[in-house]
Amino acid sequence: MLFLVVALLLLGVVLGTVAHAPLTFSVALGIVIAVWLGVFAFRERHGRRRSSSAH
């Protein structure tokens, strides 16, 4: 339950910050985060394939 409260609190802080930031900044930051998550997913997927084939 405490995790849920902290998560909602952080979500409120982040959404409050985005509401006051310029739209172009918010979109640019969203694109950066999406690219970062895509690279992370790509590396995780290929890293697991490489380690699973070695066993």
Automatic annotation (TrEMBL):
Q: Does the keyword Transmembrane helix apply?
A: yes
Instruction: List keywords of the entry alphabetically.
Output: Membrane, Transmembrane, Transmembrane helix
What transmembrane ranges does the database entry give? Answer: 26-42
Top-level taxon of origin = Bacteria
Q: What is this protein called?
A: Small hydrophobic membrane protein
